[in-house]
Amino acid sequence: MKRLSQNLNSDYIEAMNRLRSRREPRTIVAYVESFDDVFFWSALLRPLETSELRFEVMLPSRTNLQKGKRCAMSNELGPSMIACVDADYDYIQQGATEESRDMLSNPYVFHTYAYAIENLQCYAPALHSVCVMATLNDRRIFDFRAFIAQYSRIVWPLFCWNAWAYYYKRHKTFPMTDFFQVVTLNKLDFYHPENTLEKLRRRINQRINRLYHSFPEGRSTYKPFVRKLQTLGLTPETTYLYMRGHDLFDGIVGPLLQSVCDALRRDREREIRQLAVHETQQQNELASYRHSVTPAAEMLRRHTLFTSCPLVHRIHQDLRSRLNLPPS
Q1: Can you tell me the mean pLDDT for 129-137?
Q2: Alpha carbons 283 and 289: distance in angstroms, whole number
Q3: Mean pLDDT across the stretch 47-58?
């Protein structure tokens, strides 16, 4: 016989809430896809908590190690048990696939709107602060916001082709791996990023010309599909939020952030060497500084500055309206 706690559903959680003291806050269980998602969604949900309400973020199964989007969505969800998942391409598919329909039709499934949590972790306006957190150096040697906006505008037409291919089930001819090979950045000189962006523009134009030959039907459906994406809130300047998350994190923003952080660390160490009055002080200060800094990738995964992103505000609005939460 199964224990009652193994048959968790929203009604069970609500019954447990009623058994608690009135002084204890009501609990809403939020199932997420993986261990990495626990911290992200906890930070996102925390601003919605009150003295009468708290969220408990956990993996979708208490009986095994099964994880993933499908597992999180397959639970008996309700007002006291929700699923918080990556949107992937399911948001822009708008019901064209079974998983997209399941995600969008269930009022207790909340998604990132962006492709994944990694995209929101790479939220451009937060990246300078991430550098400061990692290096303890507040010099602005690179304009992340301007660069990523320009990068996104260049990538936008090819991204729309990739999303079009998945919508019209032609993705085997133009998969995400091919898209990433074109839009990845190689040997970026962050002092002169225009050179890298110009090479990127040429690669993308060449690939788009090939796609028009590979998908002649796109001549009539591509532009209406682009307009559809724009009605969903996608814009050329925010393309980076909707491309595959780990490609963006590991292949584009992560290396860029690391390059900038390396330069900032060298700058700070050079300053210590110049200001130290003797060798012992220099070695002590360098050791103290190196002990205090943090790897850029780790800080990129652990910051919470993404909560200022408009997409997070949109998720908060969904949570408030569907769960009948008090306004901010």
Answers
A1: 97
A2: 10
A3: 92
* Chain segment 156-170, per-residue pLDDT in tens: 999 999 999 999 999
pLDDT surpasses 50 at 3:
no
The per-residue pLDDT for 5 is: 42
b/e burial code for range 124-162 (CB count within 10 A of at least 16 → b):
bebbbebbbbbbebeeeebebeebbbbbbbbbbbbbbbb
Query: What is the rounded (10 degree) CA torsion for 103, 104, 108, 110?
Result: 80
Across the range 13-31, mean pLDDT stands at: 72
Burial environment of residue 44 by CB neighbours within 10 A (0 to 12, 13 to 18, 19 or more): buried
Please name every residue paired with 78 in a beta bridge, in sequence order, or none if there are none: 81
Task: State what percent of residues in the chain have pLDDT above 70.
Answer: 91
Whose structure tokens read 């968790």?
8
Quickly list DSSP for 268-296: HHHHHHHH-SSHHHHHHHHHHHHHH---H
Proportion of the chain above pLDDT 90, given as a percent: 78
C-alpha dihedral (125, 131, 136, 137), degrees to nearest 10:
-80
Mean pLDDT, to the nearest integer, of 146-163? 97
Strand pairing of 53-58 and 81-85?
unpaired
Distance CA 26, CA 10 (A): 12
Using the structure block, give the residue that is written with the tokens 């839009």: 183
- Please report, for residues 91, 137, 223, 265, 304, the alpha-carbon distance to residue 260 in angstroms, rounded to integers and kept in the order given: 33, 11, 37, 9, 20
Q: Which residues contact 150 (CB under 8 A, 6 or more apart)?
A: 197
What does pTM read for this prediction? 0.91
CA angle 232, 238, 242 (to 5 degrees): 65
Please state, in angstroms and rounded to a whole number, the distance separating the CA atoms of residues 26 and 149.
Answer: 41
Count how many residues are written for the chain. 328
